[in-house]
Amino acid sequence: MSELIEIKAQLExxxxxxxxxxxxxxGLASAAGVELKALxxxxxxxxxxxxxxxxxxxxxxxxxxxxxxxxNGPRGTRRESMSRRHEPASRRDTNANHEREKALxxxxxxxxxxxxxxxxxxxxxxxxxxxxxxxxxxxxxxxxKLKKSQGYDHEDPEAKNDGS
Length: 164
Prior knowledge:
With about 160 residues, the chain is an all-alpha fold. It is about 85% helix and about 0% strand.
């Protein structure tokens, strides 16, 4: 009888340990599910951004806009992301999208540099224009003075008005 009581106590201890391990495993599974859902949403978000960047890049490269793909909604996208995650082509697509993004960033940076250079040239041109206008005004003053000193003042009344 004592032997049965001892076996029963061992079985109860073993059941308690299994119950604790089961509870721990359920907690891990729940946390993994939450993390998987968050990762799936992040993948969906990144896929949408990549699609937008690809569309932007193609619209920059060609004069006619490229047709946009129609999404099946969040569920379809989530299924696509889950299936693509296991495909090697997915990595190539991601790399291609990353390269497109870099190309767009490079193009944007070059555009900004050209724009800054053109803005600098415009400012230089405005300064040169102001300098030349000032020089022209000085020349008209000198011409007016020269004509006045030589007695031509009464012949060219416009020179007097422009030089004043």
